Amino acid sequence: MNNQKVTLLVLLDLSSAFDTVDHQVLLRRLQVTFGITGNALEWFRSYLSGRSQRVVINGSHSREFPLMYGVPQGSCLGPLLFIVYSSKLFEVIKNHLPDAHAYADDTQLYISFKPDSTASELEAVTSLQNCIADIKTWMTVDKLKLNDDKTEFIIIGTHAQLNKIKITELRIGQNSNPVVEIYDRTFDRLVSQEPVFINFYVPWSKESKAIHETWKNLGKLCQKEGLTTIAQIDCSRFSEVCKKYEV
Fold first, then answer.
1. Does Nucleotidyltransferase appear among the keywords (predicted)?
2. Can you give the residue range of the structural domain that contains 227?
3. How far apart (Å, rounded) are the C-alpha atoms in residues 23 and 69?
């Protein structure tokens, strides 16, 4: 912000990241990418082998299932092995973005641009979208899955900078959230650009919970047919906006 730039930040959320690590892919990556061979590689193989699980319901036990996927959570090696497993992530990112931050299964993608230039804004948005698309392709190959519903998109900038840009959301392919989440600083800009249906809600309200799935399905329909934008704003966080419209 001190450089008069707006930053687009994406917080990636992986579904059951530690549980989906393929042991054979991990061992191959340790050997090929990191050069671990011989006894050291066998130590890792031994660490991952011989693990099983079973289900217990009301005192009844299922048969044991061998674990071919996953690294132990809560262990010292768990996060380290996941970092090794997902090491190709930065190879994908560097093709699109100047930098990113990650630890274990938490990854932050970001890119900054001058808000005075529409071309710079479009280039930044396109770079992020292409990067996420390639990340999802890589994840499919390595048996990981991006949780679209929990992946967050945040626009960072001063009030004056944010008023100069057009973007209010980042669509992540066809699986993007069909309901646009509006914030206090993006509300006026969104409603002034195009027709939009807005749900003013509070998370704890029975009425809000009752309409949640219907509103999401309406968003999916409008997204698929290219119709009007379906949006929502959390009145427990942005009460001043909601009061302005007597909600």
1. yes
2. 180-245
3. 6
